[in-house]
Amino acid sequence: MQARILKPEAYFIENEPYYQPVGDEISVFEAAYRNQLPVLLKGPTGCGKTRFTEHMAWRLKRPLITVSCHDDLTASDLVGRFLVKGGETIWVDGPLAAAVRVGGICYLDEVVEARKDTTVVIHPLADDRRVLPMEKVGELLEATPDFCLAISFNPGYQSVLKDLKQSTRQRFVALEFDYPEPALEQKIIENEASVDAEMAARLVKFAHMTRNLKGSGLDEGASTRLLVHAAKLITSGVDPVVACRSSIAQALTDDVDMLVAVNELSASLF
Amino acid sequence: MKVRLEKDQIQVLLDEYFEVEFSFRNTEDLSLALAQLKSDEQAFVLDWVRRIASTHIEIAYRFTSQASRALHVMDESMIEAWVLQAMDVYDRIGLHAALKVISGIDRFVRQGRERASGALFEEQVGVLMPFVQGLSGRKLKLQQGDDLFTDTETIYLPSVMAHLPDKRDNFLLYKVAVAYHWAQVRFGTFHQSLLHYLTHHKTPDLALGTFHALETERLNACLGRELPGLYREMSVLTDKLTGRSVPDGWLEQVAELRKQDASVMDCIKMTESILGQPLPATTCFQGQLNPALAFEVMQQRIEREKIALRVALKAVADELKDKSKLEREEPGRFQIRSKDATSQLEDMSIELLINGKSIPMPDDVRGTLTSIMQDLGDVPPEYLVPAGPGEYDFETGQGRLLNPEDVWGGAYHEEGAFFYNEWDYRRKHYRKKWCVMREMSVKPVHDGFAERVTVKYRRLLSHLRKTFEAMRDEDRLLKRQVYGDGVDIDAFVETWADVHTGLEMSERLFTRMHREERNIAVMFMVDMSGSTQGWVNEAEREALVLLAESLEALGDQYAIYGFTGMTRKRCEVFPVKQFDQPYDEAVKARISGIQAGDYTRMGAAIRHLSFRLNGVEARTKLLITLSDGKPDDYQDDYRSEYGIEDTRQSLFEARRSGIHPFCITIDEAGHDYLPHMYGGANYTVISEVEKLPLKVSDIYKKITT
Q1: Which one of A72, A73, A84 would you mutate to disrupt binding with B, by most B Cβ within 10 Å of its Cβ?
Q2: Which pLDDT tens digit goes with each residue over A31-41?
Q3: What is the CATH number of domain B520-704?
Q4: Where in chain B is the domain with CATH 3.40.50.410?
Q5: Between the CA of residue B111 and those of B73, B473, B484, what are the distances in Å?
Q6: Which CATH class is domain A8-176?
């Protein structure tokens, strides 16, 4: 089987990504999209922010362009740059410019990780002007009504240096995400990894044990994503304790005592 | 191969170690005994005799007389442990107790066997603590105690678990014991009616025993439902221990208690009906029930948490008030509700409501609410009234901390102090928790000292500011990069020409902005010993002002601590500026308030300040000492090699934790001992005191670029 090669702007999501709404986030996102308002997704890692965006891209039938931000991501990585090809310089659109051009959903994941100049580039796009200035080519790119900007950030773990500026955050419609309620989380795990209700409930309980440890040894508790990973391993016949060790405990910490403690917790549960 | 020593040779050595000239000990028989040993055994014993004698001659003497036997029953590493324990006991308690360790060789061997296969509390607590905190409900603490029991806040565990031959099993015993006592707290063993029942009973001991047996059945069933894996381990352990012997008809009798809806009330009821009947054997992880203590702790906690909750709710209410100011709406009453109507209260998923609307709950409120619900089963409405202004003084709930300044005024105490090991080079081992370190406050002196210094050195200062500003991190344009934001026109033109002359085209055609980050945290450790009295102190303070002004321009994180003290019981550091404090009037006044104190026990100060320095996040961490001489203290020969070796050891520890130590001294003899302590390149000697303020900033610049 050959991997498909797609241009980012042609990445339409064809099959419905499974998403279990927790509150009214779908209707809020749709309303924001219709009113051409940008959206900010807040929440801890692995609670479904990215999955939600995929789901919305599918729902709205727009291409989804995701940029995972890192601390070396510059404004020109987003907007575009000149490249030298065969003795000539040519302009190449960055992912943000590409999304504006085709009217897609541009999703900047973990936006605070990016350098400060990048957050300023999105300002004119995020208010009622909806234009992307491309300084290097001296053009302004005006967004179509189809274009949507979504950014995500995790208010929990970043340092004070990496907080989102007020001038940025006040341009967005904010949606808050958290780990789902136990019953809902159990349903998600059952659905995603096809395990039985009993096992899913135990995994959720285990997740709560690790979340109890947040702040007293762990930086974060086990996310829903990790639970799904563990459940998938269990479905493939891996012993639950082993599955929890390799997919959850090892992912959460490197501290030896903490690892043993988390493993003992899972051994107590299963 | 070492040469085996003859009796006379040994006697000469022993006479020296035991200072026979003064102590008149008879070394005749001892030398004879040692002469029988093999050569490497002789060397081992004599080495230790010398090391112990540096601590106390009597211990060394007794050790020598036991040496042959010790070699017979223990291997060398165990003998070392034995001797070190004796010396630790000597440091902590005194000679008599230490001699008891030496003479109690058989007890040590037996304990050693136990410890070899047993699980030790101090080794396992790192695992057990997160384990118990991960379980739901109130966060319990673990502590070492003589008996196994819980007071509903702390689980007390024995120091060793050695009931089973296998180490892993012994650890599991700990784990099961912790889980069992957690279950007591979590599933409400300590209910008000238990106390009532017991205090009014004719035979309270019998009733307590019976109740404990029945309650164990109920809790085991709860554990079986909640933690099935643990329950399995528990059954296996019980079988390994004794096997569970149950009186006839017991299981049928308690079947009722194993149901999901059984409560502690059912247990109490059944206790009455079966009183006096035979009970099943207890297992070691069941421990004891201590209801009296538990209720006492509970009573205090209920009071405390009521206050804590109301104060926390006040904070929430204030925040809401701020937000709703525009709407002119008073926040209403708080309510709580079980979140999921279908789930039982057991799950403890609760929601905080205000005016019927759910609001996010801060973590501290959630913790307190959970704990209150565990004690009372519900949250009474009066708990949900936010505290009025100034209604509660938090200190009532916490107990006042003793003031470190009072330590030497009245009764000596070590509360709130830090303890640090000290290296004894003669013993080649640490003296454990030897130094008592306290953080004292500097009396600020508002005399405009800092202003005077800035005026006095204004020309130097403006120069320093300029140079330091130039060192700040800034964006630099990197040219000829493989990838980047812009096209490097120079490179492009060259390449264009190259391509046309048929040369290979370079791929380095782009420019890129690169940010150079200075990520440095520096701790200045200032000598405040008596010898700095006068102009050294003045020079130090001037240097600190100039340095602070320069560092403000540079933006590095920095802290300034003074240190002094007298004897190991009074090591003191004086925070002049902590990492998170801004350089303001208060700091300036504290710099001005630095005074000469007593001695310089450097090891303890380095250990403590390393600990503080490791508390901040930075890529490079520097510990810079400003000093005027050798480490020195009253007693313990700290002035001699002992102090130098301890300081050297503390610097090794600092380096191991990722700190770069550096020393600036005005002691011209510094060349003699500083290379040994800090290493050849990590110190500077300034020969003239008045140059200190001029040089320090310069040196700082040199070592950080």
Answers
A1: A84
A2: 999 999 999 99
A3: 3.40.50.410
A4: 520-704
A5: 13, 59, 67
A6: alpha beta
